[in-house]
Design brief:
Strand order of the largest sheet: 2-3-1-6
Strand content: 25-35%
Order of helices and strands: HEHEEHEEE
Mean pLDDT: 83
Distance between the termini: 19 Å
Number of helices: 3
Oligomer: single chain
Structural class: alpha+beta
Low-confidence stretches: 9-14, 20-26
Helix content: 25-40%
Shape: globular
Amino acid sequence: MAKQMKCSSVPTALKAFPLARLLITRQACSKLFIGGLSHDTNEPVLKEAFEQHGEIIEVKVIGDHRSGKSKGYGFVQFMSEKSASTALEELNGQLLDGRNIRVFYANKDG
């Protein structure tokens, strides 16, 4: 399996603001990007697959506006960084709706 990216770092401009740094880091470390989803995968299916690893704040499958079917990716945000980390390790490369999914930390920095 490919080596996973670490949780995103804090932008330099925010290092002077400890509370902002804490909030941004926590959100970035608890939100996962899930790629390789089947076009039939919906939010309840994605939630069921991930909720075994911890309490979830939000599940979002990005869908096509015309067909309403999945575009093949989505996001899951956990209450804790530990839950997100465990889910990433356990579910990356696993089968979901007949497809091997890819799981990464979601961040804007890449």
